[in-house]
Amino acid sequence: MPDLQWNKHSWDGSYDWQGHGEEWSKAWGSSEAQWFGSLYPRLHRFLPVERLLEIGPGYGRWTHYLLHYVKDQYYGIDLSMQCIDACRQRFADHPQTRFEHNDGVSLVAAPDGVFDLVFSFDSLVHAEIDVHQHYVPQILAKLTTHGVAFIHHSNWRDAPSSPNRHCRAESVSAQAYAHLVETHGGRVLVQERLIWGKKTTELVDAFTLFCRADSPRHSTTVIIDNPDFMREAEAIRHTHQPYCLQP
Fold first, then answer.
1. Tens digit of each residue's pLDDT (9 = 90 or more) over 13-53
2. Which of 50, 112, 137, 236 is 20 to 30 A from 118 in CA distance terms?
3. Nearest-CA neighbor of 196 among 238, 157, 233, 237?
4. Considering its fold, how many domains does the chain have in total?
């Protein structure tokens, strides 16, 4: 199970960051192709934003794209000091960025009630339910009334697959995550359960889009089961043309 100690050890020393995380976008062809072909279509209704909080930015694989849609301030919080140092160096020319190291469960470094978007992708899939129990109420506290959170997490508990090739958290499910959101004063807008990896046939991952319970956003929850997610990645890999964004 990828507990806190596993995560700290993996991302702050034992993992080879030579590829800066770009290796995880290989199925899409590149991080650029994955951003514009897969992530941006799921987020475009909520961009641009005044302030954005990213949990687990790693070496800035998504930060690089997110910053194009941030008008005022970006916060990145990660349990890996190695990643925080790398991001501070990479985005040193972006005065609106602030990168903070945490203990893997605290978001206290970011102010409450100011973020239009809280984003985490390819990071919290390795976080067990105890970590989400800490993070979810804090995420809701960080959001503005109109703000939303887009969190990529495990659905392993509801769709066990053997072996666990991608080190998914085994105590987390989409249903359990939605329960946490609702218990702590939030409302799930969209929840997408999906396949991850070429050799997986079960819906082992999930994307949950949620907001505060007092948000004026539409209240009907949309549930999507997406067994074609990796086919989507394959199509993007074959059709994407570079957008030539500057770093």
1. 777 777 777 888 999 999 999 999 999 999 999 999 999 99
2. 236
3. 233
4. 1
